[in-house]
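Justification of resources, computational component.

The compute hours requested in this renewal are based largely on the per-chain cost of generating structure records like the one below. Each record pairs the submitted sequence with a full structure-token output. That output is archived, and it is also reused by downstream analysis tasks.
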Amino acid sequence: MLKQKFIYGFILSLYFSLPAVLGQSIYSTNQVEIDFISDAPLEIIKASSENCRGVLNIDSGEFIFSVFIKTFDGFNNPLQKIHFQENYLEVAAYPDASFTGRIIDQFQFKKLQPQRIRAKGDLLIHGVSVERIIPVDLTVTGDTVSFSSSFKILLEDHLINIPRIVRQKISEEINVSIKGVLKPVE
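The structure output for this chain reads:
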């Protein structure tokens, strides 16, 4: 719980203090759409959230994105959402997920055509941090940066246990897609 509070404090401090740092180009967003799909043999579960927040330092390539797990909606029924929050992601103990790291490929901010880069960092879900390299498509339009990404998450990597009785209804591999727009912090 302390780590999650630290992450949100860190995001807020970046948001409000870094633009004042000379020579830094800080971009932020508070509306990133995250969708996930569990495609299991007996059931497909889809949910999404539009409440992800993030900060990117264009100069250093460092970033942090975070989402509260309770903001995911769209499940097949209300009970499924409750099980997702309480039994699998255990939001009382682990209320958020985050991805913190840096862009590891050269990103040309002045280039107006789409660019594919890789983001390397720690993906924290269910209190378990796993180092990941995730491909991201970026497009610069004026002073905004649009981004999108698709990747897979293995539940076992984040110690999310699925009871044997529902293994045919919940996939062990979750497909995630993310898209959003970063704008300069003024």
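Residues 2-18+31-184 form a domain with the Lipocalin fold (CATH 2.40.128.110). The beta strands are 26-39, 44-57, 62-68, 96-103, 115-125, 128-141, 144-154, 173-184.
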